[in-house]
Amino acid sequence: MYEPIRTKSVHTMAAAPEIPHRSREEELDIRLAGQLTALLTVTDELHALATRADGGAADAPAPDGAALAAAAELIAEQVARLSGGHYPLRAEPTDGTAATRTGALHQRAHTLAGNALAVATTRNDTAVMALAADRLAAHAAPLRDLATA
Question: So which domain of life are we looking at (predicted)?
Answer without folding.
Answer: Bacteria
